[in-house]
Amino acid sequence: MTPKEAFRDLSHKFHGKGPGKMKLEKRQKKYQDDMKAKQMKSSDTPLMSAEKMRDAQARGQTPYLVLSGNAKSGYVH
Questions:
Q1: Residue 44, exposed/middle/buried by CB under 10 A (0-12, 13-18, 19+)?
Q2: End-to-end alpha carbon distance in the chain
Q3: 20 to 30 A from 12, CA-CA: which of 1, 36, 40, 59?
Q4: Backbone conformation region of residue 61, classed left if phi is above 0, alpha if psi is from -120 to 50, else beta
């Protein structure tokens, strides 16, 4: 809890009024997003593309990946 959040909580308790419905929902959403971010690997993207690339390298047993596309070998745009 940040100092600002702690002060807000103290203020709500002192005055006997709680935060509004929207603020509670916003806080819950932020908490859920933080938990999701902590569970996700820090070295990967949300789509888990780095892990998929590592799996493809393991299947092909190569230290590189061939990316599909229309680029010709040696062609730099």
A1: middle
A2: 50
A3: 36
A4: left
> 18-70 pLDDT, tens per residue?
999 999 999 999 999 999 888 876 666 667 777 888 888 888 888 887 777 66
CA distance 61 to 57: 6
Residues belonging to the chain: 77
Using the 8-state DSSP alphabet, how is residue 66 labeled? -
Mention every residue, 6+ apart, whose C-beta is less than 8 A from residue 43: 50
* Count of C-beta atoms within a 10 Å radius of residue 37: 10
**Residue 46 and residue 34: Cα distance in Å, rounded?**
13
Q: Does the global pTM surpass 0.70?
A: no
